[in-house]
Every structure is written in structure tokens, then in C-alpha cells.
Design goal:
By secondary structure, the protein is an alpha/beta fold. It has a single domain, classed as Trna Endonuclease, Chain: A, domain 1. The protein has helices spanning about 20-35, 80-90, 100-110, and strands at about 40, 55-60, 65-70, 95-100, 115-120, 120-125. The radius of gyration is 18 Å and the shape is globular. The termini are far apart.
């Protein structure tokens, strides 16, 4: 039996892209570990009660609403979702569009807690309030 040789030089490996469902689960686990009560508003089996509502809601200390829209790596925020998140932000909610747990962690560290993603680029929307 012959053994296959490894190719010489560094190997280039694409980062693993998790499906949106797996990212949602990781985010909920992260929030639970950090004692932030959070829940799914809808999933593949249950439709949202309102068009544009975010995937995850939670409550931060002091009673502030946490709103997280989870997107796949190349997913785009729909107009109805962006409008809903802007309304929530104007009302005082912490709004994050997350493609990973790291986006949630970073979003929670921001002063004004609003990370709205357009075409894959993060912009902090402090003027929307």
C-alpha cells in the first residue's frame, strides 16, 4: 500500500461558511453564556408575525431590547428588514446585523450598538436616531 505525499508548500484552504441556521444557534449559545435572555422570533418552520422582523430578540441589562438579524456570509438585508431595524434603533434598541458570533460580540461593545450592513460593508448608523 503506497502512501500519498502531501503537496509541497503552504496549502490554501477556504474558510468554512456556516449556514445561517448554524450561526443563529451559535449566537443564541453565546448570548446564553453571557446571561443575556434571547430567543428566536421565527425560523424556517415559523413565519414572522411582521414583515422585516429580525431573527433574534433579547433583553440587555436595564431592559434595553436587543435585535439581531442573522445573515449568511453573502446574504443581503432586505429593505423591509432594514426599515424594521431602523425603527427599532430609533426607539432605543441595540440593533446588530450578524454574519458570525464575532459580529454580535463586537456589536455589543459599540457605544451606540447599531451595526447596519449594506452590500457586505459595515457602517455605524449613529445619525439614524
Amino acid at each position: 500500500m503506497s502512501r500519498r505525499k502531501r503537496p509541497a508548500g503552504p496549502m490554501c484552504v477556504e474558510p468554512l461558511e456556516l449556514p445561517e441556521r448554524a450561526v443563529r444557534r451559535q449566537i443564541l449559545d453565546y448570548l446564553r453564556l453571557n446571561r443575556i435572555p434571547a430567543w428566536l422570533t421565527h425560523d424556517e418552520r415559523h413565519r414572522p408575525v411582521e414583515t422585516g422582523i429580525a431573527d433574534i430578540n433579547g433583553v440587555l441589562s436595564g431592559g434595553r431590547l436587543l435585535v439581531i438579524e442573522v445573515k449568511a456570509p453573502h446574504g443581503v438585508v432586505a429593505d423591509a428588514q432594514e426599515e424594521w431595524m431602523r425603527r427599532a434603533y430609533r426607539a432605543g434598541a441595540c440593533v446588530i446585523v450578524a454574519r458570525s458570533v464575532e459580529d454580535v460580540r463586537d456589536g455589543l461593545r459599540l457605544d451606540n450598538y447599531s451595526a447596519i450592513f449594506k452590500s457586505g460593508c459595515a457602517t455605524i448608523d449613529k445619525a439614524a436616531r
